[in-house]
Write a structure and sequence with these properties.
With 508 residues, the protein is an all-alpha fold. It has 19 helices and no strands. It has one domain.
Length: 508
């Protein structure tokens, strides 16, 4: 299982690195002003819907059902089930697309009510969202095909597909001179990438012999169970996205640049989340589903503990970095061109607040598997709704004194509430069994993080003394030195502690 996590995580890392290159170019050519704010709204809208109805809800409802049919040897039934779901998803997305395009001004007004109606940002956001919205159609189908491949333990193609989004946007941004402005170029890159990703997943499924066909949808027992699970899963998966919606809505009322500050901080925050948490969750859910279907509950809990420990160990250094040197990170990565020092400082405060949320967000992906693997989507739903309520209340309370940073602080608190509820209920029902291995791993991570914090706080003056005064790139050089020193100290100490505790990584 660790090997599969590393495979998914490796491809996701490539996606995040190319995504970082994309964001660096975007920041340089768009800055954090009205054009960037309009594009962020246009980009986030289809992505929010994709994350709610596609990646989150669909995978949690589809993968266990499909895997159970395959595990029972009902290959024909599994194929028929996939055909019918594919057809339904295509129909729903075509209807949604045709409804959304003419109603886009109202849609944008709902997402960003702070944009003055008829103003530059509003008009540009409407035009750009009409361009990007078809991306949702393609990505919903991509998510379906990814779930089929994942259920067959074929993870690489699905994990590598998002790289095409970044490459397409970079290619489009390089042709900015052919468009009214850089935002139009980036928007067209988004839509084209959706078609490219669908083509790649279609090829992967055809090669594996599992590509679904169009079929007449019929509400057989398997499809009824799918919808029974899908409904609560949609609401449960919406928790994080509703928080993001609320962030965008509230930030649209704040001074220009707040929406962009959230975006750039979120992109860095999403790096460890995407590479580690999503990779672990992608592999863990079908693994636990198969083991539970086969009656191997202890094996399922063991897999969950390994995934949780592995995820925490890899994500903890990012938490330390976001909390101790956020200003250096934002300045080194984005402060150039149209992205000013003030923009970097604003985004840095948001990044530090997101850092508080990272451990909880990473562990939630492993915690929900206790429920989704048993096709219980209602419990995560109620946990998510509780977290949403906490989040919204805190956003309204914290935005006044802390501005855009208060939005991220509210997100952090709500994610810890979500995790606490899920873990508590799983333990109460006997659906999770944290053991000695997980406990020792957490202890090792905490000790290694203390050492890493010392490197970040006390090593920065040393790194700055070693780097000469450069007109460009000094922050990057300092960040690289700190990163290398931190990686050696954290990795060496953690591996030494795990060896001392008698633990080792299992590649199964």
């Amino acid at each position: 299982m660790i090997r599969s996590i590393l495979s998914v995580g490796g491809w996701t890392l490539v996606s995040r690195v190319t995504g970082f290159a994309r964001d660096v170019v975007m920041a340089a050519v768009m800055g954090a002003g009205p054009i960037a704010d309009a594009f962020v709204v246009a980009f986030r809208l289809p992505n929010h819907f994709r994350a709610i109805f596609g990646e989150g809800a669909f995978n949690t409802a589809f993968v266990p059902s499909y895997a159970s049919l395959e595990e029972a040897g009902a290959t024909g039934a599994a194929r028929c089930f996939a055909d019918r779901v594919f057809t339904l998803m295509l129909i729903v997305q075509l209807v949604l697309l045709n409804l959304a395009l003419p109603l886009m001004p109202w849609v944008v007004h709902a997402l960003a009510p702070g944009f003055e109606e008829g103003g530059e940002r509003f008009q540009l956001a409407v035009a750009l969202t009409r361009i990007t919205f078809p991306y949702l159609l393609f990505m919903t189908l991509v998510t379906l095909l990814s779930g089929i491949l994942n259920a067959h333990r074929r993870f690489a193609v699905a994990a590598g597909a998002p790289v095409l989004l970044n490459l397409a946007m970079l290619a489009a941004l390089s042709l900015t001179a052919l468009f009214p402005n850089a935002a139009y170029a980036a928007a067209w890159g988004v839509s084209v990438s959706g078609l490219l990703q669908f083509g790649l997943l279609w090829w992967g499924c055809r090669r594996a012999g599992v590509m679904p066909d169009l079929a007449v949808p019929r509400l057989d027992p398997a499809l009824k169970r799918f919808f029974a699970v899908l409904g609560p899963a949609v609401i449960g998966s919406a928790g994080f996205q509703i928080a993001a919606f609320a962030d965008t809505i509230i930030a649209s009322w704040l001074p220009t640049g707040a929406v962009s500050a959230l975006y750039y901080a979120d992109r860095l925050y999403q790096l460890p989340f995407g590479v580690i948490a999503i990779a672990a969750g992608t592999v863990l859910l079908p693994e636990m589903s198969r083991r539970i279907a086969a009656g191997d509950v202890a094996g399922a809990h063991g897999a969950q503990n390994r995934a949780a420990g592995f995820s925490l160990a890899l994500s903890a250094p990012f938490t330390v970095a976001f909390l101790t040197i956020p200003g250096l990170i934002m300045a080194a990565l984005f402060q150039r061109g149209e992205f000013s020092g003030e923009d970097a400082a604003r985004a840095a405060s948001v990044l530090a607040a997101y850092g508080l949320a990272l451990p909880a967000v990473v562990l939630v992906r492993s915690a929900v598997a206790s429920f989704y693997a048993r096709q219980d989507t209602k419990t995560p739903l109620w946990a998510s709704l509780t977290a949403i309520a906490v989040n919204v209340v805190l956003k309204l309370w914290l935005t006044g004194p802390y501005g855009v940073t208060g939005l991220a602080m509210a997100t952090a608190v709500s994610q810890w509430v979500n995790l606490a509820i899920l873990v508590g209920l799983a333990l109460r029902r006997g659906w999770a069994a944290p053991g000695r291995t997980l406990g020792l791993t957490v202890a090792g991570v905490v000790l290694a993080c203390i050492a890493l914090t010392g490197i970040a706080l006390f090593g920065r003056p040393v790194a700055e003394a070693l780097v000469p005064a450069l007109s460009h790139g000094r922050e990057i050089a300092v960040l690289v030195l700190l990163g290398l020193a931190g990686a050696v100290v954290y990795g060496g100490l953690l591996l030494g502690l795990l060896h001392l505790f008698g633990l080792r990584l299992r590649r199964a």
